Amino acid sequence: MPGLKQEKVQQRSNRDENATALLSELVAHFRELRTDLRQEWAQRITKAQLLTAMTEDEVFTEATAVYDQYVEALETGTFESLQAYARNLSERIIPRGVETDEVVGIVLLLRDVLARSLFAKYQHDFAKLNRILDAYEPAANRVANTVAVGFVQERERIIREQQEAIRELSTPVLQVRERLLILPIIGAIDPHRARQLTEQLLHGIRATRGKVVVIDLTGVAAVDSSIANHLVQTVEASRLLGATVIVTGLSPSIAQTLVNIGVDLGKMNTVGDLQGGIEQAERLLGYRVVQITHDDAAATAAN
Amino acid sequence: MAVPILKQGDVLIASIQLALTDVDLVMLRDALVEKVSNYRTRGVIVDVTALDVVDSFASRTLRDLAHMIRLRGAETVIVGIQPDVAFAMVQLGLTLENIATALDLEEGLAFLAKTNRRQ
Fold first, then answer.
1. Which of A178, A232, A235, A241 is the best residue to mutate to test the B interface, defined by the most B CB atoms within 10 Å of its own CB?
2. DSSP H stretches of helix in chain A
3. What is residue A247's three-state secondary structure?
4. Mutation target among A236, A268, A284, A285 for the B interface, most CBs of B within 10 A
5. Packing angle of the helix pair A2-32, A100-121 (nearest 10 deg)
6. Hey, which of A119, A143, A253, B119 has its CA 20 to 30 A from A173?
7. Which residues of B touch A180 (CB under 8 A)?
8. How far apart are CA A81 and CA A292, in angstroms?
9. Among A103, A109, A120, A114, which residue's Cα sits nearest to residue A137?
């Protein structure tokens, strides 16, 4: 029995060796025809109207680099440098509006161009062609996979970064007077944003020693009941920190939601618009805003 | 662990420094309710800045404490609740209703000074 197993192992390693030999034959072939194949590939890219965001020269330059990387990956069987190149390429071309299907498309085109050249070369020896394709196809598919995955990962990374940036921008806690904070909310509130909003507000209250907070919802058309509940909880949590919350600019729809969830109006301090909210906040803090008359202004200027 | 209770004018200040067991909390409540009649105390401040967790028992004890002290003729302010603790409490429905809260010790003292002036 052990003899059989050994034989099998031997067979497999023979086959591996065979595959390696075939691959190096392939690589030699692709290197030899580099100029023609590259040219044909670039032309087919243009014809298929892929990478329209780039000029023909740029396509050709990138095609050359990708071609060499591709052949190298076939030869060495390692994909790190190709992966790095794919990521680098993605970084450069994503801002120019290149789409995923274009990138996948060009890599598949290259695979096809190379396969065609293999057909042409081994057309008289079908058995050998099959063996060659056995060696070529898995490697080529892996290369296509690597490039596509690299591109998609890069895109996702950019999207994540942008989401992060939007989130940070989306809930500013502004101090407009000593101990008076304003939290203007614009756009839809999803659970994640609601949580972040609460966190920023509560920490903002602590950091700036805020005593009165005006939450302005003028820019929010509607919220669902769980978000409304979250808002009420935020108001209560702010009170536990010793801050009074005034909510302004409630739309009819939000008012309806708040009433539907049965909010305790004794706890919610609401004013119609932001201006009214700020005025009430100033009263609570003991400010009085007085308009300067012309006489006063003249006197100040004279002094 | 006993919580030190300090006197500052007509205000008693209990500053909790470490996480308290339920027994410690009840002892603190009893000690404050006991002492509030000494020195003509008008206000009590409980500083919970150091607490990372306020559970339902702690919250109920604080509420009871405030109500008992009000019956004994003084006002209670809970100060220094951490932002995360505050939101966790609200989510558990522990909102310390009808009990004064303030950002920190300074705010608590200012609040008591204002309510005392009004009386």
1. A241
2. 2-32, 34-47, 56-76, 80-93, 100-121, 126-170, 191-208, 225-240, 252-260, 274-285, 294-302
3. strand
4. A236
5. 100
6. A253
7. none
8. 70
9. A114
Q: Are the beta carbons of A203 and B103 separated by less than 8 Å?
A: no
Confidence of residue A168 (pLDDT cuts 50, 70, 90): low
Q: What residue type is assigned to position A131 of the chain?
A: R
| pLDDT tens digits, A110-143 | 888 888 888 888 888 888 888 888 888 888 888 8
Q: Is the dihedral of CA B61, B67, B72, B75 positive or negative?
A: positive
CB atoms closer than 10 angstroms to residue A153: 14
Handedness of CA B52, B56, B57, B63 (dihedral sign): positive
Q: How many C-beta atoms lie closer than 10 Å to residue B104's C-beta?
A: 17
pTM of this prediction exceeds 0.90: no
Report the candidate in B34, B84, B30, B92 with the shortest Cα–Cα distance to residue B61: B30
Q: Give chain B's contact residues with A (Cβ, < 8 Å).
A: 78-79, 81-84, 86-87, 89-91, 95-96, 101-104, 107-108, 111
- Map residue A133 onto helix, strand or coil: helix
At residue A270, φ and ψ (nearest 5 deg) are -120, 145
CB pairs under 8 A between A and B: 56
Parallel, antiparallel or unpaired: strands B11-15 and B43-47: parallel
Tokens of B99: 């009990």
Chain A residues whose beta carbon lies within 8 Å of the beta carbon of residue B103? 205-206, 209, 211, 241-243
Amino acid (one-letter) located at A122: Y
- Please give, rounded to a whole number of angstroms, the shortest distance from the CA of A204 to a CA of chain B: 9
Find, among A193, A174, A110, the residue nearest to A146 by Cα.
A110
Q: Which residue in the set A205, A211, A236 is minimally distant from B95, CB to CB?
A: A236
CATH number for the region B5-118 comes to 3.30.750.24
What pLDDT, in 10s, does the model give residues A219-269? 898 899 999 999 999 999 999 999 999 999 999 999 999 889 888 777 788
Whole-complex ipTM: 0.84
